[in-house]
Amino acid sequence: MAIWLKRGATAETRASADRTVRQTVERTLADIEARGDAAVRELSNRLDKCDRESYVLTAAEKQECLDQMSGQDLKDIEFAQRQIRNFARIQRASMQDVEVETLPGVVVGHRHIPIQNAGCYVPGGKYPPLASAHMSVITAKVAGVPRVITCAPPFQGRPAPAIVAAQILAGADEIYALGGIQAVGAMAIGTQTIDRVDILVGPGNAFVAEAKRQRPFLEDASFRASVLAKIKLGRIGRVEDLMGAVLFLASDAAAMVTGTSLVVDGGWTAE
């Protein structure tokens, strides 16, 4: 006779858990939107036992984290990042702009334009996945994103040295000791001290994934406007005449540089 070692949760149990996660994230994001830094600090204190005047790491804190790493550890990180950076550059080189005059006075094409702000979530824990920092920060920087920020939860109330080292060597412009919903909310919504980003990448637990799902950037009017403002129309002259534009960003699914088509002929869709 078969003996069950472990049984999976029932559909009803899974649905209830999903509903709890969704409602918790919804309330938390609304609180961050309303109270900003105060809400973020309360969550960080309660969940990560981390209370700081500012959650962005200082130059001294970054150096302290680097100093705690062995020379071999740093070499290993640099080796892994070098492979990812090399391939990202190859991918970027394969993505060519196109502009062609199909009829006299009719010019069509597409361009690859880096977004301005990327937020990278790097999970933490006792055995942190450093690859998340490698594959998100590096690809965004190769893409030409001017501002790449990272959030990683502190470990035992302090920044995790290995994660911080990976973020520094990858080229992150701002590094925050924040995790969970509060990190996603701070990056996606913005607070009094943290400027919002245009896209979020990186894995996380159920709460992090749900927080990312609830902030669909491509549906955000201010993000659409910021993208369109950066598109140089050249001879086309009007947004209405633009057949398509291409955003160039770091892919969350495969950690690679990818093009996302944004069709602006009266609508806004992502392919």
The percentage of residues in β strands lies in 15-25%
The total beta strand count reads 10
Determine the mean pLDDT.
81
Number of helices: 9
* Helix content percent band: 40-55%
Global structural class: alpha/beta
Strands in their spatial order, largest beta sheet: 3-8-9-10
What is the terminal separation in angstroms? 51 Å
Order of helices and strands: HHHHEEEEHEHEHEHHEEE
Give me the Rg, rounded.
Answer: 21 Å
User: What sort of overall outline do the alpha carbons produce when their principal axes are compared?
Assistant: globular
**Biggest sheet features:** 4 strands, mixed
Low-confidence stretches: 231-271
Compact description:
By secondary structure, this protein is of the alpha/beta class. 45% of the residues lie in helices and 17% in strands.
